[in-house]
Amino acid sequence: MPPFSDDSFLPMFPLGMVAYPTLPLNLHIFEPRYRQLIEDCDQRGYTFGIPTVVNNQLKNLGTEMQLVSIEKIYEDGRMDVKTLGLRSFEILSFENQKDPKLYGAAKVKYFELDSTGDLEMYETLIEQVTLLFALFNIQKTLPTLQSGLTTFKLASHSGLNLEQELHFLSIQSEVERQLFLINHLNEFIPRAQEMEEMRKKIQLNGHFRNVIPPDIA
Length: 217
Hints:
The chain is α+β, with helices and mostly antiparallel strands. Helix content is about 35%, strand content about 25%. The chain folds into two domains: about 10-110, Archaeosine Trna-guanine Transglycosylase, Chain: A, domain 4 (Roll); about 120-205, no CATH class.
């Protein structure tokens, strides 16, 4: 039985972030209405949506999530839970509280999950993100083509801001998402390199430096 009399409504958990399809997301739940939401998902197998909030405004894009497990319930009712993104959606209408529940719900239009990309562009993206990790001295293992690589798995490592993440989520073609990330990284990496050079200069300020003067003719 769905949580509402109209089963076209998806329960909503708005957050100031972008959740992606196919990716795991760990959440700490403390508000009573969202504890109720998680309890309903656990007991009845419901899914729920995470739409993005920017500057206290609910955007019309989000991702449907599946509750994987409740890892811990604290004495005061707070919860640590594991979830998994399923597919993205567009909100058609939203109710902040959908009776008889405490939490809100929305009518949504789901997007088909396209995960067929171009092999050469995946290789380019892996090279770009590997370079970005080296610049920031990030020690993480990137997903591989053999492990079911998608742009969603790379987006969170690509230095996107919130607005860019929302735009990325709205793109329904995997090839177009690849192009978006490649173009973004082509612009972002040189800026990151400049910032790293500036950081090194600031760090060296006040230290004795072995400077080799240029040979000017």
